[in-house]
Structure formats: structure tokens, C-alpha cells
């Protein structure tokens, strides 16, 4: 734990309490309130965790005011341009960039875990064809604990590592199978001669009836999208994974819980909702109407892909994603894509509007990603599964970090109770 030379004094009535303050490597100090209830008999109150650090971590740092995102200290824009997803996975899991030998060994391990148990194919067939792929992924990933018993003992570091490898390796296969099932096409097995992103495109878009060549530029763009979504500190789905893990639940159940949380439109579901919003806007002349709706307190509509709990400056991932959108659409010859024009004009007008400026609302990672994914041929229903696939390494890295901490305990928040005081039961004839 960091330095405790400083402390805060809380005074309640005649009583004062000294609370230790810890200083991080970088970022805000934290006030340790763990003993507050025992000493003062009061809880702190922070329903959305807007001012609460739930853990200490060495994995990812975000400076929301400066628009900075570091993975193990490395800026996301450098990783997105110089690294690749499996190398970022190694960095997130083990804390350092791998040597060439370490990377080769890691990539070989992941490659050889990409198939799923053949019996699991039957799970997909239990769903309706029009089931949302996220529903399928939650179900199939949760069911992995019924197949991979030899990596569910969370007290064994080696089993934790094997479970992490299995989840990173199999998530693209499961996501691709969910997609193929939803469009009535046969499942496509992974190929060990393809890299991670190319393999995913192959499993999604190849068909047995003809040869399929993965476009290397699209594979590179896919890999970059994976990297941009890999981890993001203690966001809602990662916090869900940590809380599920704190009860000792097996890794597959914890990651299934994270997938379920990510699905929400306020979180990972925003990429699907954002593209659907851009299509609803349809043309640049309708942008003012939607901006007015987003500002209207009586209208629940929000600009999807805009705003962030932490970023009060540009989301650095959105900047990289915007560049990638231009490249991919140029490559695909759709640089005049009307949806991209709407997105760029919407961003321009919103960022000139006092409402968005005052509330520090900027495009986030979900604003441009859907445009790229649609141009690649994915339906909007596959956008969040791709986010879940990418974030799996962040979830498992944070899960491993929590379990490696001997101090970790079950997460059990308290509440501000505003319900009825104790009262006696009333028989129905007297009500
Ligand atoms: C992700 O946490 C993470 O790290 C998440 C993520 C990750 O990588 O894991 O970055 C991924 O989830 C990105 C966010 C994707 N969601 C969206 O794009 C959905 C649209 N955005 C919002 O719903 C909202 O901005 C949130 C949920 C992202 C953040 O909400 P907060 O922090 O709880 O902020 P808030 O709702 O209290 O909003 C503050 C003010 C409010 O106005 P007032 O009540 O103060 O008058 O800003 C307004 C909000 O009404 N506001 C918006 C808005 N977002 C916030 N107004 C219009 N459009 C928006 N998008």
C-alpha cells in the first residue's frame, strides 16, 4: 500500500476521527475509511461510486481531465499504433512488455486454446436464431464452468492462469459462433495459421462454400479495436467481475457476469445504440433536432457515444478510433459514408454547444467504433459482443490481481435505509 504519512480529520459533533490518506503513483490521493463505521458508527454515501476507490490496482490508469489512458504505464495511443492485441494482453496480465520469446510462447498458448468443447455447440442450438448474441455469450461463457473443471480452483495460481488463457482464446470463437448461429450459417472452426484478429474475421465471414481471404488491413483495424477496448480501470463491468469474484465464484461465472453488465446501453451497449442513433438522425440537417433533444431535461434521449463518468476531456480511444474510421472507410471505398458524415458533423456541432462544453461531454470509445464495425460487415447486434471479446483480457487481469491480493475479502456495501421503521403485522381483516 502507498505512503500513509498524511491523514484527514473528520469531525462529527464533539468527536474527531483521523483517517489515513494514501498517495498513488499518479492521480488523486485516497482517504482510507475502512475503520470509519467501527470508530464513528457512520457509513459514507456514494451510490454511483463517483468518489470511491474500490481497490488498489497496478493495471490501468485514467486521467479524465487530461484524457490520458495508460496500461501498465504505456499510453493507449502508443499501444494502438506500435503494439498488437495479444502483446497488450500479455502486458495487462503480466505487467511488462514480453520479450520476443515470451510473446511467441504466449501467442502459441492462446492459439491452441481457441477451440471450444464440441459438446458446447449444442448450447447455441438451444437459443432462438434471433437471440441477441450478447444473450448467447452470457449463457455459453457461464456454461464454460461445466466443461473446464480443471481451471476453476481459484486458489491455484496455475489454474487461474489457465482459465485466463482459455477465456482470452475462446471468446472470439464464442462470439463468432453466436454471430453465425444468428444468421443461420454453419460454425467456422478457428485456424492456427491465422493471427488473433484475422482468425476472428475468418470465423465470422468465411463460409464452407468458397475460399475466404482475410484483408490484412481490416485485420489490423480489427486488432486495433480489440486493443482500444482491452481494459479501462474499475468501470461497471470490471467492478461486476471483481464483486462476483469476491464471493469465490469460478472465473467463467465472473466473466459471464461482466458480459451481462457490459450489455447495458449506458456502458458497452452504447456502440450499438450510437450507430442506431446516427441512422435515426440520418442526415446532417436533422442534427440540431437531436442535439436539442439531448439537452432537453424532459426528454430521456441522450447522445449515445457521448459523455463519460471519468473523461471530462477527449477519450483518447475515440481519437484513435476516429483516425481508424477514416482509414477503413477509405480502404473500403465508402469514405463518403453518410453515417460517418453525420457522426463528424454531430461531433463538431456538439463540441461547439455550450451544454456539452459546460458539462464536458466528449465523444467516447463507442462513438466511432460502430461505424468501422458496420463498414467491416458486422450487424449492430455484434458490436457489444466485440467489445466483450476485447474486454475479456481486462476482466481476467483485474480478476487475477484481486485474487492474488491476500487481503481481498467479499465485497458487501451497506446502505442509507429510508424504509419503514419496525412495525407489527396487521391481519388482513384489519387492513
Ligand atoms: C463506456 O466507465 C467506463 O470506463 C466505461 C467505458 C469502458 O471502457 O469501460 O469507457 C465504456 O461505457 C463508455 C460510455 C458509453 N455510454 C454512452 O455513450 C451512453 C451515453 N452517455 C451517458 O449515458 C453518460 O454520459 C454516461 C453513462 C457515460 C456517464 O454518466 P454519468 O457519469 O453518470 O454522468 P451523468 O449521467 O450524471 O451526466 C452528467 C450530466 C447530466 O446532466 P445534469 O443532470 O447534470 O443536468 O451530463 C448529462 C446528464 O444529463 N449527460 C448527457 C450525456 N451524458 C451525460 N446529456 C446528453 N447526452 C449524453 N450522452
UniProtKB/TrEMBL annotation:
State the reactions this protein catalyses: oxaloacetate + acetyl-CoA + H2O = citrate + CoA + H(+)
User: InterPro entries attached here?
Assistant: Citrate_synth-like_lrg_a-sub, Citrate_synth-like_sm_a-sub, Citrate_synthase, Citrate_synthase_AS, Citrate_synthase_bac-typ, Citrate_synthase_sf, Citrate_synthase_typ-I
One Pfam entry for this protein is Citrate_synt
Q: In which pathway does it act?
A: Carbohydrate metabolism; tricarboxylic acid cycle; isocitrate from oxaloacetate: step 1/2
Give the Gene3D superfamilies listed for this entry. 2.20.28.60, Citrate Synthase, domain 1, Cytochrome P450-Terp, domain 2
GO cellular component, alphabetical, reads: cytoplasm
Catalytic site positions: 308, 366
Is this entry keyworded Transmembrane?
no
Query: Where is the secretion signal located?
Result: none
Which domain of life, per UniProt? Answer: Bacteria
GO process annotations (BP): tricarboxylic acid cycle
What are the coiled-coil residue ranges? none
Keywords for this protein: Transferase, Tricarboxylic acid cycle
What PROSITE patterns has UniProt attached to this entry? CITRATE_SYNTHASE
* Family designation: Belongs to the citrate synthase family.
Q: What is this protein called?
A: Citrate synthase
Originating organism: Alloyangia pacifica
Which gene is this protein's source?
Answer: gltA
